[in-house]
Amino acid sequence: MHVSSALFWIVSGAVGCLIVNSNKTMTFSSTNISLIKSFMIIWIITIVVVFIFYSLKQYGGREYWEFPPVLSIPIVIAWILLMIGYYRHWLSIKNKKPLYIIMWGTGILFFFITFLEQNLWHIDWFRESYLREITVQWKANGSMVGAWNQMIYGTSLYMMVRISGNKQIAQNKSVYFFYFLSLSNLMFNWGHHIYNVPTAGWVRHVSYAISMTEWLFFISMIRSFKGKLSEYRRLKNLTTYRFIIASELWLFFNLTLAIMMSIPAINMYTHGTHITVAHAMGTTIGINSMILLGAIGYLLGIDDTYGRIKRFVQYGFYISQISLIIFWISLIVAGILKGYRGRVLNIDSFQEIMSPVIGALKIFSISGIGVLAGMALISICYLQLLRKKKKIL
Amino acid sequence: MFLRIWIVLFIIFISYTIGLYMFCDDGTILKPDENIIAGRNTWQEKNCQSCHQLYGLGGYMGPDLTNIISTKGVNRAKTFIKYGTGKMPDMSLSDEEVNNLIAYLSWIDNTGKSEITPDKIHWTGTYIIKEKAW
């Protein structure tokens, strides 16, 4: 259930920021706006209905989207409306060179493809073999993460362009190269979820090979570190920029983790442990949510306000960051303990494997409250800011 | 140029996807019968995956159940499912539902082993799982 809540927040946030920012680069026509509005209405109603079903303990029992499968229908319909509205607008954009425009379009398209793919299990043929079913499901789940990353990183890139005033950073050979690299990873780098599933060997080998291209991201991040540092000195007063820089740090940590997990010989110990959760939480909270909170703050003009609200947003920022570090590390510790006790010591009883892990999980829960509290504080400040703005208007 | 690379990549993606659907598994596993399908439906309706994993995928509150039938036996699994324990909830399932769940879990058990043993690791770091002939 919490997985779906996180997904809904991320996807809604990603689409919301994307639409508002696209509208700034070029205003939507009124037909397109009404299409997107109808998307929003159906989308929100569906989310509410999903949570009603959860509270009634009615599940669909699939990972990621645990709601009863009929609710996928309104989601698909809503998304089609969004696509019509967005792509009509997209086609009329004359200058598509800035990469964020391409990334937004890519993300919306692949979310649709992967969402459909996630529902292929309704066709019996896919379920005749459990191996096929699980492979297709995790292919779709893995790629879907790539899809919303396209939307969110697009927004992050857009903000960087606006903050730094340098248009070049969104249209040079190197960002285009990394776009294609991340697109290939979106398409083919999902195999680490199912390395241990006895599918045909090449499924594993292809994913492994593709995932090793992530080293290029890694190297490029290290190489650009110095430039970032001077940029940081220049821009560190901006709250929005802090969110972005935090997300980049988390990207670095999680990329390291991801590369490790993509090596099957290491995956053997991390698979099915809390290290996977650390990776999932680290990316959704550390990277995606920070970019989204930064983007929302940017839209609300957080850096043009002074006094209490801005200060509280910064408190919220630090509370959530520090808690998140503890949160992340405790999950990794829990994962290492579970992997070590289960796979190396080969302890048989589940209870016994878990007994020392529980301690780490307690720290994890407490720091989790900190993360939520920090993010809640930021959200409350944003709401107040929004109210103030409304009054002025 | 940009568009061309994009289209080529997309075509590779689609071809790979279709190839994957067709050939990711060699088709030697028996198709599920009615009981297995019923068990699978119960598995989904009761959201067992929120606490349990199959092939390491799922929730972490309970143990991985991929090979639970072959390692711990049917009777033990039945008792757990029927009555629960302190941590595993008793979902007051009927005997029929329990049997179907067992059929489903046995079916999955036959597809392979969830745990990889060190001898399956190739020097490049990937796995060579040669349980079947492919």
Walk me through this protein's architecture.
The complex is a heterodimer of chains A (393) and B (134). Chain A is mainly α and 393 residues long. Chain A has helices at 2-25, 30-55, 72-92, 99-118, 124-127, 130-164, 173-188, 201-211, 214-223, 225-235, 239-261, 264-270, 274-299, 308-344, 350-354, 357-392. Chain A has two domains: 1-164; 213-393, Cytochrome c oxidase-like, subunit I domain (Cytochrome C Oxidase, Chain A, Up-down Bundle), CATH 1.20.210. Chain B has a domain at 35-116: Cytochrome Bc1 Complex, Chain D, domain 2. Chain B is elongated, with a radius of gyration of 19 Å. The model of chain B has no long low-confidence stretch (mean pLDDT 83). The chains are: A mainly alpha (393), B mainly alpha (134). At the A-B interface, helix 6, helix 7, helix 8 and helix 12 of A face helix 1, helix 2, strand 1 and strand 2 of B.
Rounded to the nearest angstrom, the distance between the terminal CA atoms of chain B is 39 Å
Class derived from helix and strand content of chain A: mainly alpha
Strand order of the largest sheet of chain B: 1-2
Q: Give the oligomeric state.
A: heterodimer
CATH topology of the domain at 35-116 in chain B: Cytochrome Bc1 Complex, Chain D, domain 2
Percent range for β-strand residues of chain A: under 5%
List the SSEs and their pairings.
The complex is a heterodimer of chains A (about 400) and B (about 130).
Chain A: H1 2-25, H2 30-55, H3 72-92, H4 99-118, H5 124-127, H6 130-164, H7 173-188, H8 201-211, H9 214-223, H10 225-235, H11 239-261, H12 264-270, H13 274-299, H14 308-344, H15 350-354, H16 357-392
Helix pairs in contact in A: 1-6, 1-13, 2-3, 3-4, 4-6, 6-7, 6-13, 9-11, 11-13, 13-14, 14-16
Chain B: H1 2-23, H2 34-45, E1 53-54, E2 57-58, H3 68-72, H4 74-83, H5 95-109
Antiparallel strand pairs in B: 1-2
